[in-house]
Amino acid sequence: MGDPFPISAESISAACAPEYAMHPAPSVSATTVSAPTVSARTASPSQLVLDGVTLRYPDRVVLRDVSFSVTPGETVGVIGENGAGKSTLLGLIAGAIRPGSGDVRVVAPGGIAHAAQSLELPPGSTVQDAIDHVLADLRALERRLRSLEEQIAASAPTDLDLLLCEYRAATDELDARDGYTADRRVAEGLAALGLPGLDLSSGFATLSGGERARVALAAALASHAELLLLDEPTNDLDDDAVHWLERRLAGHTGTVLAVTHDREFLARLTSVVLEVAEGSVRRYGDGYDGYLAAKATERRRRLQQYEDWRAELERSATLVESNAARLDAIPRKAPKSGFGHGAFRARGRDHGARSRIANAKERLERLTSDPVAPPPDPLRFTPSFDGRDLPSTSGDGAVRVCGLRVGGRLTLDAFDVPRDGRVVVTGRNGAGKTTLLDVLAGEVEPDAGDVHVRGRVAYLRQHVLPSASGRTLAEAFAARAELHLDDARPTLLALGLFEDRGLDRPETSLSYGQRRRLDLAVVVTSGADLLLFDEPTNHLSPAVIEDLEAALDVFPGAVVIVTHDRRMRARLRGKHVALVSALTRGVG
């Protein structure tokens, strides 16, 4: 927007003082909410409140009786697996989705900017249209200023004071958001996020999904809105772009809610974590470290509850057994004639033992009818080591590749992985990372070169496998893990990736995140010597990712992994191989 209509500050001050200072004109957020917004950026006990919110889709309940609040200035990380309802939660807060029941109250007079993963725009929309969509409240302010300028120019003297007051309120609000320089900030953001010089007149639909998300993110950050709602903001960003984003958000003076699976982002920026799972939302304080500490406490408490239940069960069973033995040991004397004390002594001892047995049996029945589930076993990969008779120094590693060529997708002169080695493969999209894993898994035949892979291989692909109709979750796991169904159920439960009540769900009804966990369960139980992972952190909750990393730490076999996760890259020992434009750039 250009400079406003030339209206003197003196005329505005004369018309509006002192009433303006006492009663500023109201502003309306770009997002409709269920409670009125206030008129200035003032301290509020809650920036937003969800109270008893439930949202149902035809096939499932997404959120059930959800209540939480966020205070002004908090940076909140929203976590959970794909399909849990994280994006839906942001849509509810933004006003794009209405709850089935409950209240959503948002106080954001400084504006709301929602950078969704996908924007719903009319066909033929341009990149500029997408930017204007995200900057809707700023664009509305600009239009209002232009309208007021026209009204002031044509107004009668009796109407001028009121119009000048409205004009001052609108200009103050736009100034508070630095609205006159928003377009410049959009261009700067696009450049920092890897889209310099993007043609704003080009069709928005011609961009890739990642590029469209970055356009929305750049516009949201440029808005200087009081409340930022960001959906997976670090997706498809290189390290430089992520660092720029983190610096930008660290300097944001308002409130941020960011859906993310980037644990480093969570650790560096968030003060609060909201975990979305099984239709509920739980709030954890003290950022990501506080979340991890709380999860560890929950595991210890669950283990203690199980151990207490087992101890009481054993104690009750012992009481039944010991009192039954005592009962058998009581002599069966014939009743004496008369009514002396000795005539009833054996009967009294008999009655006491029977009473103790009855009480112990009652406790035993109560404990067995309401069992405490055992805590899940830690994830653990157990290799078969088909070649374990060979010493690790023999030179026969898990992988040896020479002169590999796969069309125009991959060229690799040499690639070796020791039997217990760790290799992290990095590179931009299209560099051939997934192609390399496909070759090692035997799913792609190279055009040239020698590929030797030793032992059993398990492959967690970037995208989940298609679901088969007519199978339950337990049946799908049994078929893929080559287990009998009676063995598959306890094996799957022991991993802690699913609850018992969900094992009979149709495989076709599983969310993307649940299907990802199913794929992981198959890999964990495969007994493979070589593990191949293509973006293993995608679509999994941080808690599962932490467990996966712990399992990889102690896995004695070989691992080749493609990941953009900064924490995982730093934690994995071993070498890094960078692929650039289908050629090996270097090994470190």
Automatic annotation (TrEMBL):
One of its GO terms (molecular function) is ATP binding. Residues 48-303, 393-587 form the ABC transporter domain. InterPro entries: AAA+_ATPase, ABC_transporter-like_ATP-bd, ABC_transporter-like_CS, ABCF_ATPase, P-loop_NTPase. Keywords: ATP-binding, Nucleotide-binding. Pfam families: ABC_tran. This is Putative ABC transporter ATP-binding protein. It comes from Rhodococcus rhodnii LMG 5362. The lineage of its organism: Bacteria, Bacillati, Actinomycetota, Actinomycetes, Mycobacteriales.
